[in-house]
Write a structure and sequence with these properties.
single chain, alpha/beta, Arc Repressor Mutant, subunit A, Aspartate Aminotransferase, domain 2, 3 domains, seven-stranded mixed sheet, 17 helices, PLP-dependent aminotransferase family protein, transcription
């Protein structure tokens, strides 16, 4: 018999809906595996001191969202869902708006890579690129990544640059240098799923901090810091994932002042910063001795390069080197050499500019398609590849995710990003994975129709 008991402290609203929300969270976080048998209605009612009718309504809500299913004589089980297919291997007709991958307009990355690899084969010291190198990266590669980060107002000395195998590895490397198992890290109430996964793997507690239309709420952050348990803050100030919010200068100043006052380190994720060159200066420019600033060429250049980097306080170098050595020994020198050459010859700038243009084209198409059904995404920068759509009552994110999947569109809902109580549900549309703008338009139309409840465009597929 199942021992699952939901934690309702992080879920508000009617009790039946709170149970369904808790169930969705526990499935998303892995606490409830696919195929797990749930308690009977009577058993769960006894555990929670509720009526059987409330549990029946909660299970009905969860089944409507596609989370669970009942089998006569056997009980109620968490639905099995196949893992998402690798990019480029989705079944025909499926439109993937769930994976956030900025895309250029003409597949220029592959051509640039072919040309650069031929150059490397002809004139590079291949022995150096195939051998062991320093854990923090080869000196010339650290210089190139420093140039990728630096801009007026942002100092990025090469001796503070640490090469990583992408942004996810940068997150884990930085956390390994800042916190220990059992520590608490703060983040926005909806945040990048990779941060949640890293925290689970590293046995860290995550505390979601309330947000407003400007991003992380300073009062809520200070209240959490005042408790004395917060060791670090993870935040995405530019094109926050999933909401697309860009923190103002004033908001960045306020958060940094609080972090400095309470001695809280900040892990600043700036992987989308290249899409907004005019964005306010990053947090690392305000608090260089407490901010671990990360970026990655996976978003700005090409995911397959797997080269990311940290701009970190000098005093953390030894701890970061230990993290690199323990996990991957070193970032791949060959891919780092490709990045170095692209930064040097202007290829990197051209690829990033191309993605900004393509992001604007796709966002314009998606917003127009949504607006056909009276659905409006939250404001964000025109070049953003992801849109956040707040859901009107009584729409629920998991219900909409399931409905969209049935119609051949993959999207991500609040449950994928939530770290605490979320007052308003929403979904994120990622516009870069579809190969064409026409697919973006078709997918957005389906989502718009499902949100609005309209049925006038059943033929959009």
């Amino acid at each position: 018999m199942s021992t699952w008991k939901p934690d309702l402290s992080r879920h508000g609203g009617p009790r039946y809906r709170a149970i369904a929300d808790a169930l969705a969270t526990d499935i998303e976080t892995g606490r409830l595996p696919r195929g797990a048998r749930l308690p009977t209605h009577r058993e769960l009612a006894y555990q929670l001191r509720m009526t059987v009718g409330t549990i029946t309504r909660a299970y009905a809500e969860a089944e409507k969202r596609g989370l669970i299913g009942g089998e006569v004589g056997r009980g109620t089980f968490v639905r099995e869902r196949p893992d998402p297919a690798p990019l480029g291997q989705l079944p025909d007709g499926i439109i993937d708006l769930s994976v956030n991958v900025p895309r250029g307009s003409g597949g220029r990355e592959a051509g640039a890579l072919a040309e650069t690899l031929m150059q490397i084969a002809q004139d590079a010291d291949l022995e150096a690129l195939t051998g062991y190198q320093p854990h923090l990266g080869m000196p010339e590669h650290r210089v190139a990544l420093a140039a990728l980060i630096a801009r007026p107002g942002v100092e990025a000395p090469a001796d503070r640059i640490v090469l990583t195998a992408g942004a996810q590895h940068a997150i884990m490397t930085a956390l390994s240098a800042i916190v220990a198992p059992g520590d608490t890290i703060a983040c926005e109430s909806v945040t990048f799923g990779g941060l949640k996964a890293a925290a689970r793997l590293m046995h860290l507690r995550v505390k979601g901090i309330a947000m407003d239309e400007g991003g992380l709420n300073p009062d809520a952050f200070e209240a959490a810091c005042r408790e004395g348990t917060i060791k670090a803050l993870y935040a995405v100030p530019t094109l926050q994932n999933p909401t697309g919010i860009i923190w103002s200068d004033e908001r960045r100043d306020a958060i940094c002042a609080i972090a400095e006052r309470y001695g809280v380190s900040i892990l600043e994720d700036d992987v989308y910063g290249f899409l907004v060159p005019e964005a306010p200066l990053p947090l690392v420019s305000r608090l260089p001795n407490q901010v671990f600033h990360l970026t990655s060429t996976s978003k700005s250049l090409a995911p397959g390069l797997r080269i990311g980097c940290l701009l970190a306080p000098r005093e953390a170098a030894a701890r970061l080197a230990t993290g690199i050595r323990t996990t991957i020994w070193m970032a791949p020198p060959l891919m780092a050499e490709v990045v170095r050459r692209w930064v040097s010859d202007g290829t990197a700038d051209r690829l990033m500019a191309d993605k900004r243009v393509e992001g604007a084209r796709r966002q314009t198409a998606a917003r127009a398609a949504l607006w056909e059904y009276g659905v409006e995404a939250a404001p964000t920068h025109p070049s953003s590849f992801h849109l956040w759509i707040p859901l009107p009552e009584p729409r629920h994110d998991m219900e909409l995710v399931a409905a969209a999947r049935r119609e051949g569109v993959l999207i991500a809902g609040t449950t994928s990003f939530a770290t605490g109580r979320v007052l308003a549900e929403g979904i994120r549309l990622s516009l870069g994975t579809p190969s064409t703008i026409e697919e973006v338009t078709r997918g957005a139309r389906i989502v718009g129709r499902l949100i609005s409840g309209g049925d006038c465009c059943d033929n959009v597929l």
